DNA sequence: TTCGTTACGGTTGAG
DNA sequence: TGCTCAACCGTAACG
């Protein structure tokens, strides 16, 4: 058991139900000194971790109950999840068919890929007076980009400025008034800096560089001969330079693709739900993804029975079967849903509100009327105190690693309980 | 009372 | 390794 503390005091494990103490809403305060962290309790008495998705099991239950005809407001009360969250999850499910949260974190894939940059260069070379918006239109009309990944006009302008250079510069080959060096210089290369035309003394030129039309510079290293780097001083990057590896979108060099980590077939895109972009690459060959601690997972590994799927409910005296049973089974059995299965907390994490008219009657649901017990006050859980049950240091969270606040709960064998 | 919406404080992860 | 930024999260409050 755990000592009870005042409502306004940070509490390590267990606490009085906010339903009994309406003034106690947030359990968030964190003390770096005692290295203890806390989840939060919402106004309904449900436990949540700020910034993190609800456990999949709870999301699934929301969908189940909704499909059984239970109103969102009742679901909200029963599961102690804010109605806004219930509304959001139901809306997402109706829209996408997925119960899973969206992809969190990461960066949006760049639209200015090397191929796009190259195309922009081509357009600019062929028509130095072309406007950025015209380039944008051509990227679309030439099917180099679609409407979802076409760079903005400002991005194109930036590319023109940063990667192609000032076309108004008299020495820029893209300048319409550019005078080819071949017309200034005869075919004999200058032997000393003082003998070269002035432009060759410019920092942007070196002895490897030749103007367009004289591509095969004899004193250039073989790898630079005929290359844009050597031929066009304003071309600061070759495609390979930009890519950092050979292009794989061109025929003939396909064999190099698999040598790049981002293009091997050991990577796939994780299931993503709810539109947006896909950016979570998951190594397929990894046998199991390390589950997120914040997802309150693996309760079953410590002696707590796995949650039983809710298949029927009694709603106003009428028993209803869950149409989601098949989906539940699919979720639990899907090879790609290791994390989903691991994140199923016991049903009793969220006790029914006393006034609920709908109640669950499966074996798991029999746990529902039990007293409210916070996630981390359940057997097998205690709050992060720096050590796990075996004495090993707990994995620090992101913010702990950065010296900031620590959040989340870590699975240990310590048994604590607290009834609200 | 119900529910859609949104500000807010938070986490996450690629770049 | 640490930072930035834009995605996401659930809650609480509003209408």
From TrEMBL:
One of its GO terms (cellular component) is nucleus. Residues 319-346, 398-420 are annotated as: Disordered. Residues 322-337 have a biased composition (Polar residues). It is found in: Nucleus. The lineage of its organism: Eukaryota, Metazoa, Chordata, Tunicata, Ascidiacea. This is Paired domain-containing protein. GO terms for molecular function: DNA-binding transcription factor activity, RNA polymerase II-specific; RNA polymerase II cis-regulatory region sequence-specific DNA binding. Keywords: Developmental protein, DNA-binding, Nucleus, Paired box, Transcription, Transcription regulation. Residues 37-163 form the Paired domain. PANTHER family: PAIRED BOX POX-MESO PROTEIN, PAIRED BOX PROTEIN PAX-6-RELATED-RELATED. Its main location: nucleus. It comes from Ciona savignyi. Pfam families: PAX. InterPro entries: Homeodomain-like_sf, PAIRED_DNA-bd_dom, Paired_dom, PAX_fam, WH-like_DNA-bd_sf.
């Amino acid at each position: 058991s755990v000592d009870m503390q005042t409502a306004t005091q940070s509490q390590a494990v267990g606490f009085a139900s906010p339903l009994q103490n309406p003034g106690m809403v947030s359990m968030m305060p964190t003390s770096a000194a005692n290295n203890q962290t806390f989840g939060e309790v919402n106004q309904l008495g449900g436990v949540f971790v700020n910034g993190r998705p609800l456990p999949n099991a709870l999301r699934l239950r929301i969908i189940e109950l909704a499909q059984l005809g239970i109103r969102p407001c009742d679901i909200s009360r029963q599961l102690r999840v804010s109605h806004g969250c219930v509304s959001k999850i139901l809306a997402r499910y109706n829209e996408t068919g997925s119960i899973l949260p969206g992809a969190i974190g990461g960066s949006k894939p760049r639209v200015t890929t090397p191929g796009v940059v190259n195309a922009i260069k081509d357009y600019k070379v062929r028509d130095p007076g072309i406007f950025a918006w015209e380039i944008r239109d051509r990227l679309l009309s030439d099917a180099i980009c679609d409407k979802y990944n076409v760079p903005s006009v400002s991005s194109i302008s930036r590319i023109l400025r940063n990667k192609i250079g000032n076309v108004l510069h008299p020495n820029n080959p893209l300048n319409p008034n550019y005078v080819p060096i071949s017309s200034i210089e005869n075919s004999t290369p200058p032997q000393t800096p003082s003998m070269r035309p002035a432009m060759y003394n410019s920092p942007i030129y070196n002895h490897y560089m030749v103007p367009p039309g004289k591509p095969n510079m004899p004193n250039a290293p073989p790898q630079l001969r005929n290359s844009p780097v050597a031929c066009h001083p304003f071309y600061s990057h070759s495609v390979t330079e930009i890519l950092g590896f050979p292009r794989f979108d061109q025929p003939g060099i396909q064999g190099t693709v698999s040598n790049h980590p981002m293009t091997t077939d050991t990577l796939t895109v994780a299931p993503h739900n709810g539109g947006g972009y896909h950016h979570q690459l998951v190594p397929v060959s990894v046998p199991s993804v390390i589950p997120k601690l914040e997802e309150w997972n693996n309760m079953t590994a410590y002696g707590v029975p796995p949650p039983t799927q809710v298949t029927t409910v009694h709603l106003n005296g009428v028993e209803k079967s869950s149409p989601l049973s098949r989906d539940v089974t699919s979720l639990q059995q899907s090879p790609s849903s290791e994390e989903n299965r691991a994140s199923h907390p016991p049903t009793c994490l969220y006790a029914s509100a006393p006034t609920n008219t709908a109640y669950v009657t499966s074996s798991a649901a029999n746990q529902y009327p039990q007293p409210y017990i916070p996630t981390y006050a359940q057997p097998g859980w205690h709050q992060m105190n720096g050590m796990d049950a075996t004495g090993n240091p707990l994995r620090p969270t992101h913010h702990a690693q950065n010296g900031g606040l620590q959040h989340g709960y870590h699975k240990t064998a310590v048994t604590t309980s607290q009834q609200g």
